[in-house]
UniProtKB/TrEMBL annotation:
<dbReference type="InterPro" id="IPR003593">
    <property type="entry name" value="AAA+_ATPase"/>
</dbReference>
<feature type="domain" description="ABC transporter">
    <location>
        <begin position="269"/>
        <end position="490"/>
    </location>
</feature>
<dbReference type="Pfam" id="PF00005">
    <property type="entry name" value="ABC_tran"/>
</dbReference>
<keyword id="KW-1003">Cell membrane</keyword>
<keyword id="KW-0813">Transport</keyword>
<dbReference type="GO" id="GO:0005524">
    <property type="term" value="F:ATP binding"/>
</dbReference>
<keyword id="KW-0472">Membrane</keyword>
<keyword id="KW-0067">ATP-binding</keyword>
<keyword id="KW-0547">Nucleotide-binding</keyword>
<dbReference type="InterPro" id="IPR003439">
    <property type="entry name" value="ABC_transporter-like_ATP-bd"/>
</dbReference>
<feature type="domain" description="ABC transporter">
    <location>
        <begin position="10"/>
        <end position="249"/>
    </location>
</feature>
<dbReference type="InterPro" id="IPR027417">
    <property type="entry name" value="P-loop_NTPase"/>
</dbReference>
<protein>
    <submittedName>
        <fullName>Peptide/nickel transport system ATP-binding protein</fullName>
    </submittedName>
</protein>
<dbReference type="InterPro" id="IPR050388">
    <property type="entry name" value="ABC_Ni/Peptide_Import"/>
</dbReference>
<dbReference type="InterPro" id="IPR017871">
    <property type="entry name" value="ABC_transporter-like_CS"/>
</dbReference>
<comment type="similarity">
    <text>Belongs to the ABC transporter superfamily.</text>
</comment>
């Protein structure tokens, strides 16, 4: 008897994707994920990773040209009508998006967000299933918290809820696009194990090479929309051949410790005994912060510990229920003195505006009149500063990867020449090469006199350039002073 060959869970052949503006995001990509196997796609921001996922799901923007073949368990997906694709999403293809806030309806509860994975297919969630699944990914008091709206959840907590929704039906194939970018390392491993348990085959998109090594059997490396190399994870990550893979691995090495090159200046931020509550949840409980010009304060802690809430309070975007925040030297500040970098970079950019308008918005906000030609030229310079020299300033945010959108958001903040920069997970969506460059840029910004508050789950990276660390736990803050080991590098 001849054994019957089982079709791969996913087969991509000669896939080319060109957006409406003429930009080719993928060029002749081949990929095969056998049933039950775990593959990872890695590469720099803008290399085409998210475009590949969207192409498989049939979620590319209107006007996009797609050629080649995408087969799910032998069934061709390209050209399928939208109703048929909708039936496959969730049940045959699980999806965990990179941006959990964009995946949620802000007017609905998180419980509704998870339940929609059932209702979309005319099914009813089993009694207690949603609370049990949320509890299984580390959400405390899950039944009560599920009744809250997305803005009352941290990015990491909301990502876990989105994972529960994306794998609700234990699909034969799950596409996970940076599912752990907002999670601390320990929780990221737990969540990836859960995704693996609840799925058949897995296609993981990630810039975290350590995570990829632990959770993928095979790796495909993309560079500028093309396949640079592929192979078993253990082999490829230890002995790569392609220059782009070498670059990723070199940048993933621990960063050298870099601290201030000068004496800290005047106090620019004074926060005392801050308290912030959302209903009966106390997100920040008695936190105090003092920050001088030229200092970098890192804020670390588990997902849901209150880091992002504290950042919003320090930036003046929310009012505390108790305590006080004084910003500026002597309580005085100018327009653009405080600039935020949000955890959700895509939502922070106006989708209707070309990039040049977004990037020059801070100039207009402080009263400068900029001609369109000058604005484009200024925007191109700002993009080059954050490693996006090849990006057309006339592009819209929808054509960018999440990592590219984050760099645009950072460039916009820097355009205001802020005295205080409050950045919430500024490198979480970036590949390791870009993250290292942005880290250097932030440290240089501080060395030139800007005070920085950087919220992150990446303790190793922030310890490489922060002056002090503030550890959050259940809304409470404990400050740790880092030991300067830079002399040991000589």
């Amino acid at each position: 008897m001849t054994a019957t060959r089982t079709a791969p869970a996913l087969s991509v052949r000669d896939l080319t994707v060109t957006y409406a503006d003429g930009y080719t995001a993928l060029d002749g990509v081949d990929l095969e994920v056998p049933a039950g196997e775990r593959w990872a796609v890695v590469g720099r921001s803008g290399s085409g990773k998210t475009t590949l996922v969207r192409a498989v799901l049939g979620l590319l923007p209107p006007g996009t040209t797609v050629t080649g073949s995408i087969r799910l368990d032998g069934r061709e997906l390209l050209g399928l009508p939208e109703p048929q694709l909708r039936e496959l999403r969730g049940r045959a293809i699980g999806y965990v998006p990179q941006d959990p806030y964009a995946a949620c309806d802000p007017l609905r509860t998180v419980g509704h967000h998870v339940a929609e994975a059932w209702w979309t297919h005319r099914l009813t969630p089993p009694p207690g299933r949603i609370a049990a699944d949320l509890g299984g990914v580390g959400i405390d008091d899950a039944a009560r918290r599920a009744a809250g709206h997305p803005h009352t959840w941290s990015g990491g907590m909301l990502q876990r809820a989105t994972i529960v929704a994306g794998t609700a039906h234990s699909p034969p194939l799950t596409l996970a696009d940076e599912p752990s970018s907002a999670l601390d390392a320990e929780l990221a491993d737990d969540v990836l194990r859960l995704v693996r348990e609840r799925s058949g085959a897995l296609l993981l998109v990630s810039h975290d090479l350590t995570l990829v090594a632990r959770h993928a059997d095979h790796v495909l490396v993309l560079a500028d929309g093309r396949v640079a190399e592929r192979g078993p994870a253990a082999t490829l990550l230890s002995a790569p051949c392609a220059p782009s893979t070498h670059e990723l691995l070199d940048a993933h090495a621990p960063a050298l410790r870099r601290t201030s090159t000068g004496t800290p200046g005047p106090i620019l931020l004074r926060a005392r005994d801050l308290v912030r509550r959302y209903g009966d949840v106390t997100a920040v409980d008695g936190a105090s912060v003092t920050l001088r010009a030229g200092e970098v304060l890192g804020v670390v802690g588990r997902s849901g510990s209150g880091k992002s809430t504290l950042a919003r309070l320090l930036a003046g975007m929310e009012r505390p229920d108790a305590g006080s925040v004084v910003i500026g030297d002597g309580g005085r500040s100018r327009p653009g003195f405080v600039m935020p970098v949000f955890q959700d970079p895509v939502a922070s950019l106006d989708r209707r505006w070309p990039l040049w308008r977004t990037l020059t918005e801070p100039l207009r906000a402080r009263g400068e009149r900029v001609r369109r030609a000058d604005a484009r030229q200024a925007a191109a310079s700002m993009l080059a500063r954050v490693g996006l020299a090849g990006i057309d300033p006339d592009r819209r945010p929808a054509t960018l990867s999440v990592g590219q959108a984050q760099r645009v958001a950072i460039a916009r903040a820097l355009a205001a020449r802020p005295g205080l920069l409050v950045a919430d997970e500024p490198t979480a969506s970036l590949d390791v090469v870009t993250a290292a460059a942005i880290t250097t840029l932030l440290r240089e910004l501080a060395d030139n006199g800007t005070a920085l508050v950087v919220v992150t789950h990446d303790r190793q990276r922030i310890a490489g350039y922060a002056d002090r660390l503030l550890t959050m736990s259940d809304g409470r803050a404990e400050e740790l002073r880092l030991v300067d080991t830079s002399a040991a590098d000589d």
